[in-house]
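GNAT family N-acetyltransferase: structure, please.
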Amino acid sequence: MKEIRRLSSEKDFTDFTDIVGNAYPGFNIETREQKKKFVENSMRVQEENPLVTFYGVFEEDNLLGGMRYHDFKMNLLSTKIKVGGVGLIGVDLLNKKEKVAKAIMTKFIEDYRSQGISMAILYPFNPEFYKKMGFGFGTSISQYRVKPSNLPKGKSKSNIKHIRGDDAKKLLDCYTRIYEKTNGLIEKYEREFQLLFNNPKMKVVGYKKNNEIKGYMVFEFKPSHDKNIFVNDIIVNQLLFEDQESLMELMTFLNSQSDQINNVIFNIQDENFRFILEDPRNGSNNLLTPVYHEASIQGTGIMYRIIDLKGIINELRNHNFNNESCKLKITTRDSFITDNDGSIIVDFNNGFPTVVDDKEYDVEIKLDIADFSSLITCTVNFNSLYKYGRALISDESYLKKVNNIFASDEKPICITMF
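Here you go.
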């Protein structure tokens, strides 16, 4: 009989490390030293970070698979909600296709639902696999490959400084101010920024003025020529800023690197970033039919899942859904969570939602829980779901109103890796 419990002993973590190493060969956990380091790091994280816990699926003391829980707080539509994150899901090679992964996900969802948490998030190793489990797509990431000279060159970069460990608190303060007003961002702590500075590959520069950081960029160098060590690319992993001035100085800093930097590669969750560029083409010289120049490549990553439908509406009771008034019946299909498989009626009164027991309603929408998860986070609008056959509506005359209820100019942004 399978048992799921917290990893506690060094043997537990050693067995889990073997599973992770086989499940994710790209992690390069192969040598004795690499495995020892992974075990030590995992045990230390669980001991020192109360928001991270490792669990395993056991059968007669044999570890079949495991996962890592993350207790997060996320800004969803200006409402701070607790969310459960799961990562490092791995199943022993000998136990594939034995529903171990399903047992892992079932336990994860049950544990967070029991805490009164309404939403779960993850990064998928296979988006199709988790879409079938009710996880909806989040905002795509666009990768732009740009020549430094094609970035804006402002009047100054005098406020751009190297940011080091003793500035971790100021960096956190900057992030927190942005987190407070950005849909989808996850709350961070000073410890996370200290760990960032412990990674020698990562460089941090920021706009620092009057002893306050108003924007920053996390980047690394990557060789771009196998026979010339002096030519590299800059990979921008994080770019956050509070105003145009800080952004322009950060861009001017990058513009000034053209002597030794071949390309600046941005990984960014903003399809409109191309408007800052003089030339958005990525250097491939590819043309897409009929005459569209390849500018960026796109990838899907973070996924959201509502694990308590009524709960998420209640958590958003103080959010104004664009001043709309409508008694909306929401019918969701959920093969994984019985309580979500059915209908609720939400009374939107001048934008503010309340789950009601009434049988009367103005209009009904029907969709999968995965798509509603994407809709409620504002990753996608209702018109698009309806257009592509992912949602139904009982009365098309309400289409504009329903779309406006869930409409937002701000798709969710997540830069927290787990």
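Notes: The mean pLDDT is 96.
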